[in-house]
From TrEMBL:
This is NAD(P)-binding domain-containing protein. It comes from Companilactobacillus heilongjiangensis. SUPFAM superfamilies: NAD(P)-binding Rossmann-fold domains (SSF51735). One of its GO terms (molecular function) is oxidoreductase activity, acting on the CH-NH group of donors, NAD or NADP as acceptor. PANTHER family: FLAVIN REDUCTASE (NADPH). InterPro entries: NAD(P)-bd_dom, NAD(P)-bd_dom_sf, Polyketide_Oxido-like. Residues 7-202 form the NAD(P)-binding domain. Pfam families: NAD_binding_10.
Length: 226
């Protein structure tokens, strides 16, 4: 398969690319700028907003692993998403957007999200949270795009081990009655296991038109926030 990874120099993007290459796929990474001391193999330096239909015409899947956390950059989580989806509408390309755990529902009626709990997402994170939520809202409107919104669970560990174990769950996360993330259970996954899961989904072309959550178990360091 030919797989494009947008955000190729980010923590998640880098590992997703590595996993895809390890399995023998033809991989191209997109990064908006050069990074010192990083490999340029299979990397195209181009802002995702400048990507054209010609750039994506021969790919089977696009993994959008863009990470934007600073003020003024977070809009890429929805305007970048919409730019890509408009180009691939009506095609067979599978678009996987790596989303934010803030969008997970904390009630059965899906009226409230994790973003509303300040111990999980304090005020300074709300702009980024809103951008992720807007991206998911936009994605749900595209019936003619083979999209999957892939959410890591709350404790997303860049330094965790690759165990090979993970579960695919739905749109809800169970929070402790204290609403304190340190008391949470079944809310952990390492970047390494997450990357394995993403490429599994790409290869199997599963969960189209679904938002899913990837989780591997309890946080091994419950007082740490990743």
């Amino acid at each position: 398969m030919r797989i494009m990874v947008i955000g190729a120099y980010g923590h998640a993007g880098k590992l997703i690319m590595r996993e895809a290459v390890r399995r023998g796929h033809d991989v191209v990474g997109i990064a908006h700028r050069m990074h010192k001391h990083e490999s340029t193999n299979n990397i195209v330096i181009k802002d995702m907003m400048d990507l054209t239909k010609a750039d994506i015409s021969n790919v089977d899947a696009i993994v959008d692993a863009v990470g934007a956390w600073t003020a003024g950059t977070e809009a890429v989580h929805y305007n970048g998403l919409e730019h890509i989806t408009q180009m691939i509408a009506g095609t067979t390309i599978h678009y996987l957007k790596i989303g934010g755990a803030n969008t997970l529902f904390i009630d059965k009626k899906h009226r409230h999200t994790l973003q509303e709990l300040p111990l999980y997402y304090p005020d300074y994170m709300q702009d980024v949270c809103n951008a992720h939520a807007e991206g998911l809202k936009i994605l749900r409107t595209y019936d003619d795009v083979n999209w999957t919104y892939v959410t890591p669970t709350f404790n997303f560990d860049p330094n965790g081990q690759k165990t090979g174990n993970y579960q695919v769950e739905g749109e809800e996360i169970k929070v402790p009655s204290s609403h304190d993330p340190n008391d949470g259970k079944h809310d952990y996954i390492s970047y390494a296991d997450f990357s394995k899961a993403v490429i599994d989904i790409v290869e199997q072309h599963k969960f189209v038109h679904q938002r899913i959550t990837l989780v591997s178990g309890d946080n091994p360091h419950p007082t740490w926030r990743y």
